Amino acid sequence: MVLVIEFFSPVFIGSADATVEKEMVLIPSGEYLMGAEEGKGRPDEYPRHKVFLDTFYFDRFEVTGEDFEEYLSSNSSQHPTITGWWGRQVRPDMKKRPVFGLSWKRCKNFCEWKGKRLVTEAEWERVASGLNGRKYPWGNSPPNQKKANFNRCCFIRKGLTTEEVGNYRLGSTPEGIYDLAGNIAEWVYDWYDKNYYNKSEYLNPQGPKNGVNHTIRGGAWNSLSGYLRSSARYGYDEAKDFYGIGCRCAMSAK
Fold it and tell me: Is the Cβ–Cβ distance between 95 and 68 less than 8 Å?
């Protein structure tokens, strides 16, 4: 057995140094194994293959109602999401909970407004699985209600079925990234193709050049435990608002 130890340290960039350190984690460049071993996942997770990623920054938390309210205040042509709002003001009980009901395009627009971008599928899995191939973001032990918000059927209860971001400390990654499994599933940049891993690029893959649906990662409050695995992937109509899908951003290192 080879023990892989990952070291992370604060990195500062530009004039927004403190904000970047607080909001994001630096993920160093390197190679990892993406996907699942045959028989340990679903067919769209095969074959397991090597990927090399350049250094990037990754949000610690899912985008919250408070974050999206700030976006709306600076973008008068944009509108609130499907629930959680009093006019254009987020409800107090939704400020720290993940915003949901974002189409893929709205998530992309939000990230770009923040000076960031959508996470690629390969980046998302690198953060969730680490270099040692964790089955879940926290490790290899199965999900439970202390690690993730999942398997809560069936009603959103005006958004209160979600939990405040960062609430599941035991479910965070070793470097302190929260809610990658459960709470809200997350859009990533890539088009979804169940056979893409057979032809994926090695260096900084960004998915197929076109497709019908975009990829979702991470599972949600109403997902079964299988969707919480680090390598689990599926596609959804990117034009639809949905109660189980939200947003997280990344940024290329400069």
Answer: no
Q: For residue 43, say if its preceding peptide bond is cis, omega within 30 degrees of 0.
A: no
Query: H/E/C letters for each residue in 10-39?
Result: CCCCCCCHHHHHHHEEEECCEEEEECCCCC
Residue written as token pair 């940049």: 189
Residue-level pLDDT, tens digit, the chain, 254 residues? 333 333 333 333 343 455 565 799 999 999 999 999 999 999 999 999 999 999 999 999 999 999 999 999 999 999 999 999 999 999 999 999 999 999 999 999 999 999 999 999 999 999 999 999 999 999 999 999 999 999 998 888 989 999 999 999 999 999 999 999 999 999 999 999 999 999 999 999 999 999 999 999 999 999 999 999 999 999 977 655 588 999 999 999 97
Residue listed under structure tokens 């400390």: 169
Residue whose structure tokens are 């939200």: 246
Edge-to-edge strand ranges of the sheet holding 245-246: 234-236, 214-217, 185-191, 245-246
Tokens 């490790």 sit at which residue?
A: 139
Specify the pLDDT at position 22. 74
d(CA 31, CA 167): 30
Nearest to residue 35, comparing CAs of 178, 225, 217? 217
Question: pTM of the full predicted structure?
Answer: 0.91
Name the DSSP class of 199.
T
DSSP 109: H
Residue ranges of domains in the chain, CATH in brackets: 17-61+100-252 (3.90.1580.10)
The closest alpha carbon to 68, from 57, 79, 77, 59, belongs to: 79
